């Protein structure tokens, strides 16, 4: 039985590219136009796993997605890093001078702002998905409007690339996580990264004490993100990612955190794939 994967966006999107690289070129996907729809796809059993962007090297963490994973008790079972190359594309036979509007996802527009500033008379329009914009231009044969999307989208929807790799920063990477309703079955020998959520008593030094424990247990803290607890004013949940060489060190750190924290939740234990 072929596994079906939920992605945010449509075929030709960066999520689709990650699904192909992680699961194989012929992967079957459920196209979801929002992250909420993506989560519903897994929870309903429509798909078995999902690909979700979680942070970008330029724009930082996608904070609402941390909350979605936590709230819906999803498990991170893997990760994948994708180098983002943004391209300006339109119907064949046009030049940049013919373009009056550029449509794309707000993140894509932000990543290409230095290039777009060269064309102050071109209107920037935010859209739900990079690949969806490209597809719509082709299906409706829209002239004068360009999309910012991947080379995969340009090929899939037969658009001409008017300007390749227009992202402001060349070393622009997005980290994606692989989600499932059940926890990972990765062996302890392979696990060298974990995503955790914890809550602390609101008193001086409580976070510093936890960070010291992580350091003493040889944990490398690669991400820390705080989110306010809506139901408890001035109290925060902390989301952290740690990497480690030995699972035993991580197990020790986790057991100490269970004592020190008011609440501890493991969002995922998986293999680090950072290039």
Q: In this structure, how is the largest beta sheet organized?
A: 6 strands, mixed
| Separation, N- and C-terminal Cα atoms | 31 Å
Q: What is the string of SSEs from the N terminus onward?
A: EHEHEEHEEEHHEHEHEEEHEEHE
Average pLDDT number? 93
EC number: 4.2.1.51
Domain ACT: 195-275
Domain Prephenate dehydratase: 4-181
Protein name: prephenate dehydratase
If you had to describe this structure to a student in words, what would you say it looks like?
It is an enzyme of class 4 (lyase). Pathway: Amino-acid biosynthesis; L-phenylalanine biosynthesis; phenylpyruvate from prephenate: step 1/1. This protein is α/β, with parallel strands linked by helices and 275 residues long. It is 29% helix and 33% strand. It contains 9 helices and 15 strands. The strands form 3 sheets. Strands 1, 2, 3, 4, 5 and 11 form a 6-stranded mixed sheet that branches. The chain has a 5-stranded mixed sheet with strand order 8-7-9-6-10. Strand 3 and strand 4 form a beta hairpin. Helix 8 packs antiparallel against helix 9. The longest helix is centred in the last third of the chain and has 14 residues, at 247-260. The chain is elongated and about 65 Å long. The mean pLDDT is 93.
Helix-strand blueprint:
Elements: E1 4-8, H1 14-23, E2 28-32, H2 35-43, E3 49-56, E4 60-61, H3 63-71, E5 75-83, E6 87-90, E7 101-104, H4 106-111, H5 113-116, E8 123-126, H6 130-139, E9 145-149, H7 151-156, E10 160-163, E11 173-180, E12 193-199, H8 206-216, E13 220-228, E14 236-243, H9 247-260, E15 263-270
Parallel strand pairs: 1-2, 1-3, 7-8, 7-9
Antiparallel strand pairs: 3-4, 3-11, 5-11, 6-9, 6-10, 12-14, 12-15, 13-14
């Amino acid at each position: 039985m072929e596994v079906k994967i939920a992605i945010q966006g449509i075929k030709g999107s960066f999520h689709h590219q990650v699904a192909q690289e992680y699961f194989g070129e012929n992967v079957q996907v459920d196209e979801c136009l929002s992250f909420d729809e993506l989560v519903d796809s897994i929870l309903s059993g429509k798909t078995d796993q999902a690909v979700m962007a979680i942070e970008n090297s330029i724009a930082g963490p996608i904070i609402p997605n941390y909350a979605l994973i936590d709230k819906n008790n999803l498990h991170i079972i893997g990760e994948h890093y994708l180098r983002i190359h943004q391209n300006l594309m339109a119907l064949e036979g046009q030049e940049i001078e013919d373009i009056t509007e550029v449509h794309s996802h707000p993140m894509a527009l932000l990543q290409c702002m230095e290039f777009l500033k060269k064309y102050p008379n071109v209107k920037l329009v935010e859209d739900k998905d990079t690949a969806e914009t490209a597809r719509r231009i082709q299906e409706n044969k829209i002239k004068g409007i360009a999309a910012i999307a991947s080379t995969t989208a340009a090929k899939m929807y037969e658009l001409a690339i008017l300007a390749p790799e227009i992202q402001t920063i060349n070393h622009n990477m997005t980290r994606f996580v692989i989600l499932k309703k059940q926890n990972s079955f990765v062996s302890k020998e392979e696990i060298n990264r974990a995503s955790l959520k914890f809550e602390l008593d609101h008193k001086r030094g409580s976070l510093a004490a936890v960070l010291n424990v992580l350091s003493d247990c040889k944990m490398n803290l690669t991400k820390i993100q705080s989110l306010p607890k809506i139901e408890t004013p001035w109290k925060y949940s902390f989301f952290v990612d740690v990497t480690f060489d030995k699972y035993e060190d991580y197990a020790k750190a986790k057991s100490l955190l269970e004592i020190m924290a008011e609440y501890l939740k493991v969002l995922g234990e998986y293999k680090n794939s950072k290039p």
